[in-house]
TrEMBL record:
Transmembrane residue ranges: none
Record PROSITE patterns: FHA_DOMAIN
SUPFAM superfamilies the UniProt entry points to: SMAD/FHA domain (SSF49879)
Lineage, top ranks: Bacteria, Bacillati, Actinomycetota, Actinomycetes, Micrococcales
UniProt entry keywords in alphabetical sequence: Phosphoprotein
Domain called FHA: residue spans: 146-195
Positions with biased composition (Basic and acidic residues): 228-249
Record protein name field: DUF3662 and FHA domain-containing protein
Keyword Phosphoprotein: yes
Source organism, top-level taxon: Bacteria
Chain spans, region Disordered: 221-249
PANTHER family given in the database record: NUCLEAR INHIBITOR OF PROTEIN PHOSPHATASE-1
A Pfam family per the record: FhaA_N
Length: 249
């Protein structure tokens, strides 16, 4: 299964059937993915024998109408795009200078269905963001323990009669993740095999009852890295370089 197929399946979890009708015309989410892949492949630069550098900051421009439809999906769409960019780069053995950042912008100069991608390299810190994808919902993991179960006291609540009230937990220490079954009635599976406790690798699939939970680690730009923000800002670069401050003439 190709990367675009994986993206479409991921997007199906984000967009329910009723809302998907909105995308029968105009720009399709999968077209944004294709444009991002083309941008990465086109801008790939060989900097040494073992290092091929690709952009990590992307501005995706589209018509105002398309932008309004995409914005309705909220941050889930951006997360899916970051995930697919990360996987595509890994499959091609490309490397990033810093964390991945993708912004969607309305451009009145573009007609519906059109998309343009601008990109550049910004060296900066990477914020490795662990998440659980559950039936179209995405739950960022904080340091400590995240309980999954059917009960209201669980951090990730499953609408699944096959799940116990406190079924399993994911432990995240800032670098590594572990899965532990909490003595559930029906047990927990990891990548199709029963498990009591195990290390969680990126893209591992946890099965609880009928629920399929995917553990992912997204390489996002660190929002606290102000130096990276300045490098991405042409105006800031002009100030740092001793250039003039104000509109370009």
């Amino acid at each position: 299964m190709g990367l675009l197929d994986n993206f479409e399946k991921g997007l199906e979890r984000v967009v329910n059937g009723a809302f998907a009708k909105t995308f029968r015309s105009g720009l399709q989410p999968v077209e944004i993915t294709a444009a991002l892949k083309r941008e990465i492949d086109t801008k790939a630069a060989v900097v040494s024998r073992d290092r091929v550098l690709v952009p990590n900051r992307f501005t995706v421009r589209m018509s105002p109408a398309d932008h309004q439809r995409m914005s309705t999906l909220g941050p889930a769409l951006i997360d899916e795009l970051v995930d697919i960019v990360q996987k595509h780069a890994a499959s091609q053995h490309f490397q990033f200078a810093g964390g991945i950042q993708i912004g969607l912008h309305a451009d009145a100069g573009l007609s519906e269905g059109m998309v343009q991608v601008d990109s550049h390299n910004v060296k900066g810190r990477v914020a490795w963001t662990p998440v659980l994808d559950v039936d179209g919902r995405r739950f960022p993991l904080l340091k400590g323990r995240t309980v999954i179960g059917r009960g209201s006291e669980a951090d990730v609540t499953l609408d699944d009669s096959g799940a116990s009230r406190r079924h399993a937990e994911v432990q995240w220490d800032g670098q590594r993740a572990r899965l532990r079954d909490l003595g559930s009635t029906n047990g927990t599976e990891l990548d199709g095999s029963p498990v009591t406790e195990s290390v969680l690798e990126p893209d591992s699939v946890i099965t609880i009852g009928r629920s399929r939970i995917v553990f992912r680690v997204l390489a996002q730009a660190d929002p606290n890295d102000t130096s990276a923000s300045r490098r991405a800002d042409p105006a800031a670069q002009r100030r740092d370089d001793g250039g003039s401050w104000g509109p370009d003439r």
